[in-house]
Design brief:
By secondary structure, the protein is α+β, with helices and mostly antiparallel strands. It is built from 5 helices and 10 strands. Strands 1, 2, 3, 4, 5, 6, 7, 8, 9 and 10 form a 10-stranded mixed beta sheet that branches.
């Protein structure tokens, strides 16, 4: 009998072309589908809570898939981890309600963008941080972040110029903290546009460097023009922390 299974997955996205299955390219979704299809002897479709970009990581991506197996959830987790590469792990498997859908049922996501501004290269963290050659003004960045919170049209922060659907999203929290030489930018919202978190991070870093003033954020939102916002920050510093249901 087929059941709907819910997965919690973590991965180092460094060598993958993002989450979404692509022909002839190595992706997270593709790897998961290959393992489950091998188990079931038929093609299995895995649905993710979102689509992380190439090079972006996740501590707790949520996904679901419907299929028939005699394995219990723990055995299924162990089977998947046996055949998945070392940079992808299934942390948890549970039976879900028939109507559970990893993407449509998600009500919030938390992303963290990590920067490093210390004097010595972060050798062992280098794949997971963006190294800065300056010490950013975090107070100015926090002022700017406050203006970017709320329900807004984030078209200026969308990496897809052909986006036909609404670019209005709710970002209810942007927190910027420092721990030693590490700077964390946490973005929590109902959903995010393509490259949106990385463009927000890139724009806030320009504020931190003194290239923009915090009050310019209001104009950026109103402009609805990607060309007016800051650069897309590198993917390695971004990690999906959790998905809310």
């Amino acid at each position: 009998m087929t059941k709907n299974y819910k997965f919690t997955i973590c991965y180092d996205g460094s060598r993958y072309y993002g989450w979404e299955h692509q022909p002839d390219r190595d992706t997270i979704q593709g790897r998961l589908e290959n393992v489950l299809s091998r188990l079931c002897g038929e093609e299995i479709k895995v649905i993710g809570a979102g689509r992380t970009d190439a090079g972006v990581h996740a501590r707790a991506m949520t996904a679901n898939a419907v299929f028939d197996t005699e394995l219990d959830p723990d055995e299924l987790r162990d089977y998947m981890n046996r055949y998945l590469p070392d940079d992808i792990a299934v942390k948890d498997v549970r039976e879900a309600a028939d109507r559970f859908h990893a993407r449509y049922k998600a009500v919030g996501k938390l992303y963290r963008y990590t920067c490093y501004d210390g004097p010595v290269k972060p050798v062992f963290q280098r794949k997971y941080v963006t190294v800065l050659d300056y010490r950013p003004d975090l107070d100015a960045m926090r002022q700017a972040a406050k203006l970017l919170e709320g329900k807004n049209d984030y078209k200026s922060f969308c990496g897809n110029p052909r986006m036909k659907k609404s670019t209005v999203r709710i970002v209810d929290r942007i927190e910027i903290t420092r721990k030693g030489s590490y700077i964390y930018m946490d973005f929590h919202g109902t959903g995010f546009l393509q490259n949106m978190v990385r463009i927000l991070a890139g724009t806030l870093l320009e504020v931190g460097k003194g290239k923009r003033k915090p009050e310019e954020m209001t104009e950026l939102l109103e402009a609805r023009d990607r060309g007016k916002a800051g650069p897309t920050a590198p993917p390695g510093g971004l990690c999906l922390i959790k998905v809310d249901y």
